[in-house]
Amino acid sequence: MQNLSRIIICCLLIGISILTNISPALAFCGFYVGGADAKIFNKASQVVIARNGDRTILTMANDFQGAIKDFAMVIPVPVAIKREQVHIGKRTTIEKLDAFSQPRLVEYFDPDPCATSDLNESAINSNSVRRSAPSARLRGSGSNQDLGVTVEDNFKVNEYEIVILSAKQSDGLETWLQQNGYNIPKGASELLSPYIKQNLKFFVAKIDLKEFNKSGFQVLRPLQIAFESPKFMLPIRLGTINARGEQDLVIYVLSPKGQVELTNYRTVKVPTGTEIPTYIKGEFGAFYQATFQKVYEREQKKVAFLEYAWNVSNCDPCSSAPPTSAELKDAGVFWEDNGETTSSNPTNNSRRRSIAQSNTFITRIHVRYTRDKFPEDLIFQETGNQENFQGRYVMNHPFKGNLSCAAGKKYQQTLRPRLEKEASNLANLTGWSIRDIYSKIDFPTVQSQPDGNKPFWQNVWSDK
Fold this sequence. Notes:
Elements: E1 31-35, E2 44-52, E3 55-61, E4 72-77, E5 86-88, H1 91-101, E6 104-109, E7 143-144, E8 149-157, E9 160-167, H2 170-179, H3 188-197, E10 201-207, H4 209-215, E11 223-228, E12 233-234, E13 247-255, E14 260-262, E15 267-269, E16 274-275, H5 284-298, E17 304-311, E18 314-315, H6 325-330, E19 353-354, E20 361-369, E21 378-382, E22 389-390, E23 392-397, H7 406-430, H8 434-440, H9 456-461
Parallel strand pairs: 2-13, 6-23, 15-17, 16-23
Antiparallel strand pairs: 1-6, 2-3, 3-11, 4-10, 5-11, 7-8, 8-9, 9-10, 12-21, 13-20, 14-21, 17-20, 17-22, 18-19
Helix pairs in contact: 2-3
């Protein structure tokens, strides 16, 4: 397959203010056993936004596939970005926020009904900014009267060659980019035009291959940009120029105030709290993909989805340890104390983890979009809502011991409707065949009863 050149149009989000009151976390009391991270979506870009007042630090990662020499990034920005405002971010920071906020699977274990025991619950990265000029002279440097393009600035940040442009006409900007070696697909002019009319600048980046090869990295590192602006928007339309079908965008918004939501598209919570069969433990990625697609289609493919909203100082149940102060600083959080927080070093299956009280709230928004269903850029607003939410799915393991007592026999009678309900829940969430689901149920087996009855599972499932 030929390498396809792409413009990765990353996202610009602006505007969250301060709220100091932190809502307490509610206890869910389950064991975390798995999560659905952004990696299970094959065409997912990720953006982290740390925002307080008019100040924003934006970290951008993408799923660029193809020859590195063909990479180009064009981002509409509200102000002309200077080189001291651009750094290289850490991919591990994005991975941390993704792991912390991903939809999760938890499990419980039924107790022995014949026993009397209780229920058994299972900143910015400091990489240096290179001060040297780009290796190749830009043919459009300065003001180009014919094309209406002005080069406001150009500089290098490690392996990235960056140019800041302003433009008066979209076809002139497209021509300038093509003349200067940026692989711009056809149709760019139409989508560039609205940003030019808003007097936005353009942050344009490509890769210095020599620097990239010297770095030793196999994938592109995230870019991190700091700026000030009252606008609170995320331009995604340019990203549809060369898209081959639907695209997934996962946005992690860090704020001292609370949840954010879209003003020009509805924000819908993903399904949560549903009890599903235990075999999903080995198929959680496929389960969540199917569940997301089903609700995406139900909402006519034109809403954003809330997958997680929580203060970063704690989680319940936890899919990973909460981010430390150092990790929050790497993600761009500039309003927290610089001192490192500490934790009790909890185990992987801790019901709840916490670090020192944090004034940072994370909102995870998942947008799957196409050009026809998302014709407008994303516009956000802060709500001040600190209500906790997570996409969470529950497994209940049946007890598999001796059930010869009276309580055990009653317990047997409750399992059939419960297991059928779990199967029905799974079919409703995913659209999967109920027959296929039944065929995968891990039927509970117990020893034959002293009165000569059949093994429990035969009595329950004899008609399936």
